[in-house]
Prior knowledge:
By secondary structure, the protein is mainly beta. Helices cover 15% and strands 40% of the residues. The chain has a five-stranded antiparallel beta sheet, covered by helices on one side. It has one domain. It has one helix at 52-62, and strands at 15-20, 23-31, 34-39, 45-49, 71-74. The radius of gyration is 12 Å and the shape is globular. It is built from one helix and five strands; from the N terminus they run E-E-E-E-H-E. It comes from Lysobacter korlensis. This is Methyltransferase.
Amino acid sequence: MNEATGVQNETSHGTWVAIGSVGAVGSIHRVADGFEVKLLPDGTSRGTYPSLDVAKNALHAALPLGTERPEFSEH
């Protein structure tokens, strides 16, 4: 977080893990052209998105219907 502006710095680290009620369900990785979404257990890329928020929404949308939004932990 930039303390002067209060804006989250999306590029400070490269990986976010999505944690649901059953444990890790996916991950988001910073890549050259945006944020790549992968679901576990296969780790197959589900696409690259222009911002971290859009990638988080895409990961949640790829989970089974009715799944609560996971928590995202930066690593």
